[in-house]
Amino acid sequence: xxxxxxxxxxxxxxxxxxxxxxxxxxxxxxxxxxxxxxxxxxxxxxxxxxxxxxxxxxxxxxxxxxxxxxxxxxxxxxxxxxxxxxxxxxxxxxxxxxxxxxxxxxxxxxxxxxxxxxxxxxxxxxxxxxxxxxxxxxxxxxxxxxxxxxxxxxxxxxxxxxxxxxxxxxxxxxxxxxxxxxxxxxxxxxxxxxxxxxxxxxxxxxxxxxxxxxxxxxxxxxxxxxxxxxxxxxxxxxxxxxxxxxxx
Length: 248
Ligand SMILES: C[S@@+](CC[C@H](N)C(=O)[O-])C[C@H]1O[C@@H](n2cnc3c(N)ncnc32)[C@H](O)[C@@H]1O
Fold this sequence. Notes:
This protein is an alpha/beta fold and 248 residues long. The protein has helices at 10-22, 29-42, 57-70, 84-92, 107-120, 133-137, 156-165, 200-219, 243-247, and strands at 74-78, 99-104, 126-130, 144-149, 169-178, 223-228, 234-239. The longest helix has 20 residues, at 200-219. The mean pLDDT is 94. Bound molecules: S-adenosylmethionine.
């Protein structure tokens, strides 16, 4: 196979996603429950209409696996929402005992998340920070070994600049950026004939913004960039070989 992605229809995408979930280490109960709670509670609710913002269950399984492998001392997440991905970072860092700092601008989301984290007793290592991420980032100190971008997509390059300028990324650290394919529309307006019509204007705009961001990431001389067609598209970045050591 010379392409890197299977030609999915919606039915096949569902079938393959479920198959992959079943053939991966099972999602821990508390993540499973949070995922179900978010989809049930938020769908159609007055304020929180968008459970779609949450990562998929398989993505949660991937996060746990990645965190176990990287064994970070500190994790930084931009975009908490209802805490599903922060719980995955927590689960994946049980051995490394990492501190997890997760940022969100929306008070209601953080309030619901703080309540859950207290109930689950995971507030010993997860720190929730409310406010616009750019502002919060400029106040952070120290280094992070795993950084996840999953908030406002239009500011991703700004976040990268702040992180690199402040050396918040450790020398061997990795940045993971979610949704770089914007449901496929980053590659062109007509790329996804299966997209629900009501979502099309949003993702057309998101795709256009992301096209520029992806190019900016690639052209940034401070990082090595790899874009993968998994989930809604994930870009991985690390310091260019030898760069932090030279600058240090
Ligand atoms: C896609 S959701 C995060 C999903 C979460 N990581 C998960 O997997 O369940 C994006 C979140 O980013 C937050 N957000 C949007 N703009 C932001 C900003 N400027 N600063 C911080 N958070 C922001 C939103 O409130 C929302 O909760």
